[in-house]
Specification:
The protein is an alpha+beta fold and about 500 residues long. It contains 6 helices and 26 strands. The structure holds 2-acetamido-2-deoxy-beta-D-glucopyranose (10 copies) and fe (ii) ion. GO terms for molecular function: acid phosphatase activity; metal ion binding.
């Protein structure tokens, strides 16, 4: 470890720009629950949420004693679960206390659709979405950043695009790489942010996190925000930062306690793992209408003798990151049990997201150990679609198993379909799609086409699912593909009382 005396203590000033909007965020929790989370500057003895069916009668109160922080954090994370709600119903709510104690804002959310409800709906998916504006992706960047990777004047970013599309999706799924607070040092070295010291940098890291969650509140206060782990949640310095001018290479051993081991991520969210048998915010599942959604952890806990990429000793070279579950092979044991228990007559669709891709033209960004442990189960249980990011490109592939294309393509394949969309945007933008692309690649966008965007999944019915790449700049669809799955039992399931069937789709 080399701690620099060369970074001058010019400005802890950039660190106080945090916020007064409380970072309100929601998450589905079981069939009839909603987790309401928000931040305050002080510890709160009993965080509470006033809620009700109409704006002027918030006559119910849910409370908890969960108001938690960690070293270097400037806020407390409050988590309150509201239980026994009706499915697919809009409620109004107000967390208390808020940072602005005199705020009169009343928020609303809509609960999960009952499993087996066949009503069509859409979901927004992002991976690799960083802070926008003066601490992240904007119309300027440090000198090494390509001009195609910054925003053009007036170009709408992905957070604003999602906000402008709130009516078009039920929830937002963010499968890792959230905020990129660990870019603080890179942004200082590239002279995009004012220089601080390593010590002072801890405050910059937290200010970037706060800024991101503030920006996201425009979406996450009314739409559930389901998240999973990415490598940029692990620590304060990612896989290391080079200061070429001073011939210093930093690594994550510079990180303060509180800025290692996924600490911010563990504190900030309460994903529904306790009601789905998963582990923390790392792996879990939930039903929504005709879909069973599964979040996987490609960063730690792969089991089977592998060291996860972000664990101490793993491929990223990180320090001080431990597995999150001490049980041997906990994640794949859980995944198999979770998949085996899916009732395809109720939730015919099974969609999986994990941060790193199993297949991609940019092979350096794939996770072969993830493929080893997860793919056999994804094939065996006929998962419909596998989503990922990590590579900052968009690439839609064919349905695949063990590297072979399904002969049916998207017309009733047996193999899982793979899509990577890491093009949501962050400080230094998009990557280059490797050329030549894999033979099973069907469509790609990268820094050459300079297009930021998000994914929209539309579940039309039991047999048809459409994936769209939505360009953030103008909300136009730059790529659209529809998957068809023949499911003979669907025709009779419009009553929502299909016959119970387990173990894949062979009912
Ligand atoms: C918080 O509440 C739970 C149950 O609601 C209880 O088990 C726990 O002891 C409480 N913790 C504190 C610190 O009060
Ligand atoms: C109350 O609201 C006013 C106007 O928005 C604001 O200036 C003030 O800081 C708020 N007070 C507190 C305690 O948040
Ligand atoms: C719920 O909140 C969103 C975001 O503020 C808003 O656009 C929408 O109109 C609200 N819905 C209702 C029913 O008030
Ligand atoms: C900040 O640090 C970088 C790299 O150490 C250096 O090149 C730059 O001149 C410094 N900027 C200021 C304003 O001190
Ligand atoms: C940079 O640092 C390394 C190791 O600290 C050293 O071996 C190398 O000679 C240095 N290079 C320059 C140009 O100073
Ligand atoms: C670890 O996984 C086991 C088995 O899946 C589960 O029962 C346990 O709750 C998990 N532990 C944690 C800390 O979540
Ligand atoms: C990492 O966090 C886990 C809890 O999730 C804790 O048990 C472990 O001691 C932590 N390890 C380090 C190196 O901080
Ligand atoms: C975008 O550019 C990449 C890299 O040159 C290329 O592979 C891809 O086909 C382009 N996409 C479109 C839609 O033109
Ligand atoms: C929308 O924006 C994208 C990305 O900037 C661009 O490629 C496309 O041509 C635009 N479409 C329209 C209809 O303006
Ligand atoms: C399912 O949705 C697709 C796409 O909208 C449509 O073409 C198809 O006819 C629908 N199937 C049924 C059984 O309604
Ligand atoms: Fe990543």
């Amino acid at each position: 470890m080399r701690v620099s005396s060369l970074l001058v203590a010019a400005a802890a000033a950039s660190a106080h720009a945090y916020t007064t909007n409380s970072q309100i965020r929601l998450a589905y929790h079981g069939d009839s629950g909603m987790m309401v989370s928000w931040n305050t500057f002080n510890h709160v003895e009993n965080p509470s949420v006033h809620w009700g069916l109409s704006k002027d009668r918030l006559n119910n109160i849910a409370t908890s004693n969960v108001s938690i922080t960690y070293p270097t954090s400037t806020t407390y994370n409050n988590h309150v679960l509201i239980n026994d709600l009706r499915p697919d119903t809009t409620y109004f709510y107000k967390p208390s206390p808020l940072m602005k104690s005199n705020s009169t804002d009343i928020f609303n959310f809509t609960t999960s659709r009952r499993a087996g409800d066949n009503t069509p709906f859409s979901v927004a998916v992002v991976v690799d979405l960083g802070t926008m504006g003066s601490k992240g992706l904007t119309t300027s960047a440090g000198a090494p950043v390509a001009s195609t990777n910054i925003l053009q004047p007036g170009e709408r970013n992905t957070i604003d695009s999602l906000e402008s599309s709130l009516a078009d999706f039920d929830f937002l799924w963010h499968a890792g790489d959230i905020a990129y607070a660990d870019y603080w040092l890179k942004e200082e070295i590239q002279q995009f942010l004012p220089n601080t010291t390593i010590q002072g940098g801890a405050a910059v890291y937290e200010s970037i996190l706060n800024e991101f969650y503030d920006e996201m509140m425009a979406i996450t206060a009314s739409k559930p925000y389901m998240v999973g782990p990415g490598n940029h949640e692990a620590n304060c310095d990612n896989a290391g930062t080079k200061d070429k001018a001073h011939n210093i290479t930093y690594d994550s051993s510079i990180c303060m306690p509180g800025q290692t081991n996924f600490t911010g991520f563990k504190n900030h969210f309460r994903m529904p793992s306790d009601v789905s048998g998963g582990t923390g915010n790392f792996w879990y599942s939930f039903d929504h209408g005709m879909v069973h959604f599964i979040q996987l952890d490609t960063e730690t806990d792969l089991g089977h003798g592998f060291i996860g990429p972000d664990e101490t000793g793993g491929s990223e070279g990180f320090f001080n990151v431990d597995p999150v579950n001490a049980t041997m092979n906990a994640q794949t044991t859980w995944l198999e049990a979770d998949l085996a228990a899916v009732d395809r007559s109720k939730t015919p669709w099974v969609i999986v997201a994990g941060h790193r891709a199993l297949y991609l033209s940019n092979t350096d960004d794939t996770c072969s150990t993830c493929k080893d442990v997860f793919e056999p189960l994804l094939i065996k249980y006929k998962v419909d679609l596998v989503l990922s990011g990590h590579s900052h490109i968009y690439e839609r592939l064919a349905p695949l198993a063990e590297g072979k294309e399904d002969p049916n393509g998207l017309e009733n394949p047996t193999f899982p379909w793979y899509i990577t969309n890491g093009a949501a945007g962050h400080y230094d933008g998009l990557d280059v799609l490797e050329s030549p692309r894999q033979p099973y690649s069907r469509f790609g966008l990268d820094t050459t086409n300079a297009t930021y965007g998000w994914s929209r999944l539309t579940f039309h019915n039991c047999t048809h699912l459409t994936h769209d790449f939505v360009a953030s700049n103008n909300n136009t669809v730059l790529d659209s593909a529809t998957l068809f799955k023949a499911r003979p039992w669907c025709a009779s399931s419009s009553s929502n009382h299909g016959e119970h069937c387990n173990h894949g789709e062979d009912c």
